[in-house]
Design brief:
The complex is a heterodimer of chains A (about 190) and B (about 180). By secondary structure, chain A is an alpha/beta fold. In chain A, about 40% of the residues lie in helices and about 20% in strands. Chain A has eight helices and eight strands, in the order H-E-H-E-H-E-H-H-E-E-E-H-E-H-E-H. In chain A, the strands form two sheets. In chain A, strands 2-1-3-4-8-7 form a six-stranded parallel beta sheet, sandwiched between helices. In chain A, strands 5-6 form a two-stranded antiparallel sheet. The radius of gyration of chain A is 15 Å and the shape is globular. With about 180 residues, chain B is α/β, with parallel strands linked by helices. Helix content of chain B is about 45%, strand content about 20%. In chain B, helix 2 links the parallel strand 1 and strand 2. Classes of the chains: A alpha/beta (about 190), B alpha/beta (about 180).
Chain lengths: ~190, ~180
C-alpha cells in the first residue's frame, strides 16, 4: 500500500472543471479542503452514512453536471444501503470514491470492516453500478479521474491508502453557510431569495 | 374496490396535487401500505423522480443533495421509519435545508400490532426534539390542507416539516387487512 490520501484526493480534484463535490465527514472533508476550499464542494461535518445519498440527490437535481462523492470507508459502511439505492437509480453523472485507510481515523484509528476483507467495490458492482474498482496505485487513480469527467456512471471506486495521521485542514463549519455558498455558486445568487 | 373514491376521501390524490403545485420533483420513499396510492401517483407523474430507499435515513441525504442542486424533496415514510432518520435530521437543521415529510402513522388509533406502538407513540416527540415542525391530519378531508401548510412553512422558512397522517385516515385494522391491500 503506497498511496497517500492527500495525494489521491488532490489528483482526483485536479482541473476539476464543473464537477460538483460532496465530501463525507472526517478525513475526506479535510482532504478536499487541503486540495483547495471551493464553493462547489459541500463538506459534511455530520450525518455519517449520508454522503453517497447526498451525491445522488445532487446528481438527480443536476443531471448535466458531474457529481463526485469523496468519502471514507467508515462513512460508506454506515450507509451501505445507499449503494443499492444508487444501483436502482443508475445516475450516469455520479461517481462515489471511497478513500479507504481501513480505519476510523477521527476516533483513534480503530480498524474498520475493510481491514478485514470487506470488499466495497464488489458490493457496488453487485448493486448495479456501471463500474466498481479497487485501486492501489497512481495509474489507477489517473484513470479514475478520467472516468469521473468522461464516462457514463454510476462509478464506484475504493482507493486503498496508507493509514496515517496527518494535519487537519478544516473547511468552514457552519452548515447554512456551506449550503448557501454552494447554491449561489451553482444556481446563481437568485437562489438565495428563492 | 375499484370504484373511485369521493374527492374528499381520496386524500392521496389531493395531497399529490398539492405536492405538484409546490414543485416537489424528488420523492424518496420506503414502501408503506398507507402510502401505496401516493407512491403510485408519484411514479406516474413525469415531473417527479421517485427514489425507493433501503432505509428512511437515506432520504435525508437525498433531500440535502437535491436542495443543493435546486430541487425540492418530499419524503414518504411510516412512523416506524421516523426512528431511522433522527441523527441525519441534524444536517437539515444545521444547514437550513427545507424538506417535507409525510408520515403515515402506526401504533396509535386502534393499532393491532404491539411492536408498532412504541415508535408510533414517540414519533411526534422525537421529530420535535430534532426541530421538525409537526402537523397532524386526523381526517381524510384534512390531509391536503395540512400538506399545503407544511409545504409552505418548509419552503418559506428553510425548515423540515412533517405531516403525521393518522391511522384513523389510513384505516388499517388488522394484519390481514394490511396484506390484502
Amino acid at each position: 500500500m503506497s498511496l497517500h490520501r492527500r495525494d489521491v484526493v488532490k489528483a482526483l480534484l485536479q482541473d476539476r472543471g464543473k464537477v460538483l463535490v460532496v465530501a463525507g465527514l472526517g478525513s475526506t472533508a479535510w482532504d478536499c479542503t487541503a486540495a483547495g476550499d471551493r464553493d462547489l464542494t459541500f463538506p459534511m461535518w455530520g450525518a455519517m452514512g449520508c454522503a453517497a445519498m447526498t451525491g445522488l440527490g445532487l446528481a438527480l437535481a443536476q443531471p448535466k453536471r458531474r457529481v463526485l462523492v469523496l468519502t471514507g470507508d467508515g462513512e460508506m459502511l454506515m450507509g451501505l444501503g445507499s449503494l443499492a439505492t444508487i444501483g436502482v437509480q443508475k445516475p450516469d453523472n455520479l461517481c462515489v470514491v471511497v478513500i479507504d485507510n481501513e480505519r476510523y481515523g477521527e476516533t483513534g484509528m480503530q480498524e474498520s470492516h475493510t481491514a478485514h476483507g470487506v470488499d466495497l467495490a464488489a458490493m457496488a458492482r453487485a448493486a448495479g453500478f456501471a463500474s466498481g474498482l479497487l485501486l492501489r496505485d497512481a495509474a489507477g487513480v489517473a484513470a479514475l479521474r478520467k472516468a469521473i469527467h468522461e464516462t457514463a456512471g454510476p462509478h464506484f471506486a475504493q482507493v486503498k491508502v496508507v493509514a496515517e495521521k496527518i494535519p487537519l485542514v478544516l473547511p468552514p463549519r457552519e452548515g447554512a453557510l456551506l449550503k448557501t455558498r454552494f447554491r449561489a455558486a451553482l444556481l446563481g445568487s437568485a437562489a438565495n431569495t428563492e | 374496490m375499484n370504484a373511485p373514491l369521493p374527492a374528499a376521501l381520496d386524500w392521496s390524490l389531493a395531497a399529490h396535487q398539492v405536492l405538484s403545485r409546490h414543485g416537489f420533483s424528488v420523492v424518496g420513499y420506503v414502501p408503506d401500505g398507507g402510502h401505496k396510492r401516493m407512491i403510485e401517483l408519484c411514479q406516474a407523474d413525469a415531473r417527479m423522480r421517485t427514489v425507493v430507499m433501503t432505509t428512511e435515513e437515506e432520504g435525508v441525504g437525498l433531500a440535502a443533495g437535491a436542495w443543493l442542486g435546486g430541487a425540492k424533496t418530499v419524503l414518504l415514510m411510516q412512523s416506524s421509519g421516523v426512528g431511522n432518520i433522527i441523527n441525519a435530521l441534524g444536517m437539515l437543521r444545521e444547514c437550513r435545508i427545507p424538506a417535507l415529510i409525510l408520515v403515515t402513522m402506526r401504533g396509535e388509533y386502534g393499532e393491532f400490532n404491539p411492536w408498532q406502538v412504541p415508535m408510533g407513540q414517540a414519533t411526534p416527540e422525537v421529530l420535535r426534539a430534532m426541530g421538525v415542525t409537526v402537523q397532524h391530519a386526523d381526517s381524510a378531508a384534512d390531509v391536503a390542507e395540512q400538506v399545503d401548510a407544511a409545504a409552505r412553512l418548509a419552503l418559506g422558512s428553510y425548515q423540515c416539516a412533517a405531516v403525521l397522517i393518522s391511522q384513523r385516515v389510513i384505516g388499517i385494522k388488522s394484519f390481514e387487512d394490511q396484506t390484502s391491500r
